[in-house]
UniProtKB/TrEMBL annotation:
Descriptive protein name: Formamidopyrimidine-DNA glycosylase
Membership in a protein family: Belongs to the FPG family.
InterPro entries assigned to the protein according to its UniProt record, in alphabetical order: DNA_glyclase_Znf_dom_DNA_BS (IPR015887), FPG_cat (IPR012319), FPG_Glyclase (IPR020629), FPG_N (IPR035937), H2TH_FPG (IPR015886), Ribosomal_uS13-like_H2TH (IPR010979), Znf_DNA_glyclase/AP_lyase (IPR000214), Znf_FPG/IleRS (IPR010663)
Cofactor requirements of the protein: Zn(2+)
Gene: mutM
Amino acid sequence: MPELPEVETVRRGLQPVLEGARITRVEARRPDLRFPFPEKFLERLTGKTITALGRRAKYLTMHLEGGPVLICHLGMSGSFRIETSDGGEMPDSSEMLGEFYHERSKSAVHDHVVFDVVSPEGARSRVIFNDPRRFGFMLFSEGAPDTHPMLAGLGVEPTGNTLDGGLLASLLKGRKSPLKAALLDQRLIAGLGNIYVSEALWRAGLSPLREAGTVAKPGKKAKQQSDALAEAIRSVIADAIAAGGSSLRDYMQTDGSLGYFQHSFAVYDREGEPCSKPGCGGQIERIVQSGRSTFYCRTCQL
């Protein structure tokens, strides 16, 4: 599944084309993705102006003038591609937004939804949703996105300063599940996924196997741990978003891949490699937790 930084990179890539644009035509090339498209899907989108393009956790939210809000999820293999025109027939150029750790498809066979839009200045673009495994979806929210059943139970965002040590400790207090499992609980922190939880735990020097509630116990040590973990979560997400944003600018108007944070992974997918933390001397190991790979260093993550 794409994680929050990748979805945010996609949002930032779509934003200049979609925000303020009017949808002139929508084509759905099949009746469903993971779920059937909403009733009157094409009719309710066509002619509408997109007032804002947002993100909540791993969901994109397209706000339309007069409603509704279109909620989009990329699923396991979904991606957006933009085709632009300088006044002739589209496309003059094509750009895929958000190349992920697992390569995304560019095959037109898997182009399932096509949005034709025109900007306030008259520039025409085509935004194409491609999804070979069809595990993504598009649904309407009639009110605020947070009221939709898909988003209503989501926890705090791991961006900005809202997530601090005190809040994190309150979320984890008394929990006996492994720390990594607790951090992946979307009801606590929204948008964290397998890759960045592994990276954040390494930065904070905490084992993915320890009980989650141990960082919320009374005392100075636990406070230091919760503060360090909150800072690690925020910084690893911010660094990944910044890396994606930089690559997005580098690859504007191309059909190339966007950079991914993989070049900066400290532990993820680095089994058997030396730990890069200064003075550690340990080695990165891979274990399986709840059916998912966990990468960590048992020497410096306690």
